[in-house]
């Protein structure tokens, strides 16, 4: 019985580490960290930014796993909500900035493959794919 629990724990921990590593690689690959350092002219603090992203992921997971935000456990430190909200806003703003730059890839791709005659079908296919993905996501949650 304990072997099964140990195997589940090791598998869960390994899967969590893999997913977290992939997410942080994606964030760095999008250029969110380096773009932030470039725009603020603080390239010498890039390691601090990367550590902050990793620490934010760890703390967010701890809050999520141990449900610290429920049952009034954080009621004594309500100021923490304002700090969290501010930092989450900065994070979402950086994501929006990075994704806006990634969207510049579509015009370059379209010009390279000379897709001028069926551009409307290409855009429609992207929109339908996104819609279908969202519908499947929310349908599976119910």
From TrEMBL:
Name of a matching Pfam family: SpoVAB
Keywords (A to Z) from UniProt: Membrane, Transmembrane, Transmembrane helix
Domain of life: Bacteria
Membrane-spanning ranges: 6-34, 46-68, 74-98, 119-139
Protein name, entry field: Stage V sporulation protein AB
Protein source organism: Mediterraneibacter butyricigenes
Lineage of producing organism: Bacteria, Bacillati, Bacillota, Clostridia, Lachnospirales
Gene behind the chain: spoVAB
